[in-house]
């Protein structure tokens, strides 16, 4: 059972480019655009995210975030991406792959957010579709999971369009907006059709 012991060597997050979006890992030079977009989208994002630490948009907190991302990439447990619009290269949102588990599971979790002014333009659907080959073909994982609140229609629609299947319902699964909330569980596996 060779695959059970497989350890994929250090794999930096690649730059992933399509006609619509470009995904790459964040650096300190992204701080100004990131904090501006997250700050301007605060009330749009807050109902769907864990409570933001009080200093979340500050430069030291961003630096700490980058250090955590770096550690996760080195340990091959997670890959963070910022999402830019192809053409004007504006930062539009973020996408993270986290909780990478090897062994018999070979799975990882997907999270994403879009700046309010860029939402509803198909950009995160394009970003999620673009990251799937990295997950299955480069990282050689078997399963990509995502969870969302049952009333998050945009997120549900996005996952369906990107080829995910609804698999379950987890009670009080994640602490979102300060409360343990029920979630729908979605996943795509490596041999599912890719849209
Ligand atoms: C969820 C989110 C990432 C989607 O990103 P996006 O770039 O706006 O998504 P897209 O434009 O690619 O696709 C969204 C789809 O949902 C649909 N949609 C949007 N709002 C909707 C609503 N209120 N009801 C039903 N469908 C909705 C869009 O019409 C689109 O589907 P379509 O192409 O068939 O028309 C973004 O809305 C967001 O960041 N929301 C707040 C934070 C959040 O929910 N994070 C995810 C937590 S799981």
Automatic annotation (TrEMBL):
Listed Pfam families: Acetyltransf_3
* Keyword flag Glycoprotein: no
Q: Which InterPro entries match?
A: Acyl_CoA_acyltransferase (IPR016181), GNAT_dom (IPR000182), N-acetyltransferase (IPR051531)
Which key words are in the record? Acyltransferase, Ribonucleoprotein, Ribosomal protein, Transferase
Molecular function GO terms recorded: protein-N-terminal-alanine acetyltransferase activity
Q: For the N-acetyltransferase domain, which residue ranges apply?
A: 35-195
Q: Could you tell me which Gene3D superfamilies the record lists for this protein?
A: 3.40.630.30
An annotated GO cellular component: ribosome
PANTHER family associated with the record: [RIBOSOMAL PROTEIN US5]-ALANINE N-ACETYLTRANSFERASE (PTHR43792:SF8), GNAT FAMILY, PUTATIVE (AFU_ORTHOLOGUE AFUA_3G00765)-RELATED-RELATED (PTHR43792)
Question: What is the similarity comment for this entry?
Answer: Belongs to the acetyltransferase family. RimJ subfamily.
Name of this chain's protein: [SSU ribosomal protein S5P]-alanine acetyltransferase
Name the lineage. Answer: Bacteria, Pseudomonadati, Pseudomonadota, Alphaproteobacteria, Hyphomicrobiales
């Amino acid at each position: 059972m060779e695959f059970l012991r497989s350890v994929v060597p250090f794999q930096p997050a690649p730059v992933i480019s399509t006609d619509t979006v470009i995904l790459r890992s964040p650096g300190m030079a992204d701080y100004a655009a990131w904090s501006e977009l997250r700050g301007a989208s605060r009330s749009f994002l807050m109902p769907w995210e864990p409570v933001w630490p009080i200093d979340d948009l500050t430069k030291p907190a961003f630096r700490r975030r980058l250090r955590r991302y770096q550690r996760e990439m080195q340990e091959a447990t997670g890959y963070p991406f910022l999402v830019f619009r192809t053409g004007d290269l504006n930062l539009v949102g973020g996408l993270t792959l986290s909780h990478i588990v090897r062994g018999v599971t070979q799975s990882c979790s997907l999270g994403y957010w879009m700046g309010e002014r860029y939402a509803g333009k198909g950009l995160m659907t394009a970003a999620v579709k673009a990251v799937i080959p990295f997950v299955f073909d480069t990282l050689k994982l078997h399963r990509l999971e995502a969870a969302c609140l049952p009333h998050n229609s945009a997120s549900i629609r996005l996952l369906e369009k990107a080829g995910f299947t609804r698999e379950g319902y987890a009670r009080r699964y994640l602490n979102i907006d300060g409360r343990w909330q029920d979630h729908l569980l979605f996943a795509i596996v490596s041999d599912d059709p890719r849209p």
